[in-house]
UniProtKB/TrEMBL annotation:
Residue span(s) of domain DUF6852: 50-119
Entry protein name: Uncharacterized protein
Organism: Duncaniella dubosii
Superkingdom of this protein's organism: Bacteria
Record-annotated DUF5606 domain positions: 2-47
Pfam families according to UniProt: DUF5606 (PF18347), DUF6852 (PF21186)
Cited InterPro entries: BVU_3817-like_C_sf, BVU_3817_N_sf, DUF5606, DUF6852
Length: 146
């Protein structure tokens, strides 16, 4: 699901990939639904390609967003109510206990929580791909009566 959700450097918010053009992408803002082009010189990254540093392996952003959703019961996070930088890092430690405290900055955590809120606001509540994670169930052939 997050493969088509994009972050564009220098632009606020998140965008959904609508179409590809010659030397550009057509993107739609998740919050305003306004369509704009993103050119080859723009730094565009898919949220599906982002991961968070931990002490062992990197954790995909989809897993972290699912953990945030679970902790908050699917409700938005009030980042200002959490408090200062130390409180934000403590809050994130409850979500991802083994995150690398040297390489994951407080600004990264705040951005992740802001993205979570934007995704909820845009109606995106399922972060993991259902096709990739769910095993396929084969149906039994139906018998025909003649």
């Amino acid at each position: 699901m997050l493969k088509t959700v994009l972050s564009i450097s220098g632009r606020p918010g998140l965008y959904r990939l609508v179409n590809r053009g010659k030397n550009m992408l057509i993107v739609e803002s998740i919050s305003t639904k306004k369509r704009t082009p993103a050119y080859a010189h723009d730094k565009v990254i898919s949220l599906g390609d982002i991961s968070i540093y931990t002490e062992t392996d990197d954790v995909p952003l989809t897993d972290v967003l699912e953990a945030v959703k679970e902790k908050n019961g699917g409700q938005p996070v009030d980042i200002k109510a959490i408090g200062d930088d130390v409180a934000v890092r403590e809050y994130f430690a409850e979500i991802l206990p083994d995150f690398d405290r040297e390489r994951v900055y407080t600004s990264d955590i705040k951005k992740l929580l802001t993205w979570y809120n934007l995704l909820l606001e845009g109606g995106i509540t399922e972060f993991a791909d259902k096709e990739a994670s769910a095993p396929e169930v084969e149906s039994a052939p139906e018998s025909e009566e003649k």
